[in-house]
């Protein structure tokens, strides 16, 4: 239940936290790509300079052109991609919450985006405008298990985060509880 956690539950208010980019897998890949990029860059630079910047790499076996140059290129790409991942983690891109408040009669969907004028994505709708919930289940190489909310006159809005798909039982349970709480229909089963 990594993507769609319940953080506040009462009789009239439901609030679900969405983790976004601060998942364990993003930290893992940011570290791996950072160290891999540094390794490739230092190996390429070692072949150019003619001495070993890393004690376990023998640069005399690597000719700078073309192998060392290509390794420097891959090292820079790894560092750039790692930097991008660290920035998305630092900025909490995709993190937020879904709040369903019967007291105020609103549904609020909040997410953090990339820096700029649209950094805060804050959508508010009346509960009366909510038509249905839809669950999308796609299996295969790239499985997708997502809960969507359909608002009158708008496109469907995903409520679950991107990343590891939730367990089938968890998504069914959350979707049915939410549809029952909002007293709307549930589609897709």
From TrEMBL:
GO cellular component: chloroplast thylakoid membrane; photosystem I
Record's keyword annotation contains Transmembrane helix: yes
Annotated signal sequence range: none
Keywords in alphabetical order: Chloroplast, Membrane, Photosynthesis, Plastid, Thylakoid, Transmembrane, Transmembrane helix
Transmembrane segments: 27-51, 63-87
Main localization, broad class: plastid
One Pfam match: Ycf4
Taxonomic superkingdom: Eukaryota
Function per UniProt: Seems to be required for the assembly of the photosystem I complex.
Protein name: Photosystem I assembly protein Ycf4
UniProt lineage: Eukaryota, Viridiplantae, Chlorophyta, core chlorophytes, Trebouxiophyceae
Gene encoding the protein: ycf4
């Amino acid at each position: 239940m990594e993507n769609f956690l319940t953080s506040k539950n009462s009789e009239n208010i439901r609030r679900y936290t969405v983790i976004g980019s601060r998942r364990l897998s993003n930290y893992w890949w940011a570290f791996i790509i950072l160290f891999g990029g540094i390794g490739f860059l230092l190996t390429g630079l070692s072949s150019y300079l003619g001495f070993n910047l890393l004690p376990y790499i023998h640069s005399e076996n690597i000719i700078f052109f073309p192998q060392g140059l290509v390794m420097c290129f891959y090292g820079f790409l790894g560092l750039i991609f790692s930097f991008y991942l660290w920035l998305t983690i630092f900025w909490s891109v995709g993190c937020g919450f879904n709040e369903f408040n019967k007291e105020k009669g609103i549904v609020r969907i909040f997410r953090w985006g990339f820096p700029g004028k649209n950094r805060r994505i804050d959508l508010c709708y009346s509960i009366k405008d909510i038509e249905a919930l839809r669950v999308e289940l796609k299996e295969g190489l790239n499985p997708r298990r997502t809960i969507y909310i359909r608002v009158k006159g708008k496109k469907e809005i995903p409520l679950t985060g991107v990343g590891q798909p939730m367990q089938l039982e968890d998504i069914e349970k959350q979707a049915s509880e939410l549809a029952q709480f909002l007293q709307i229909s549930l589609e897709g089963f």
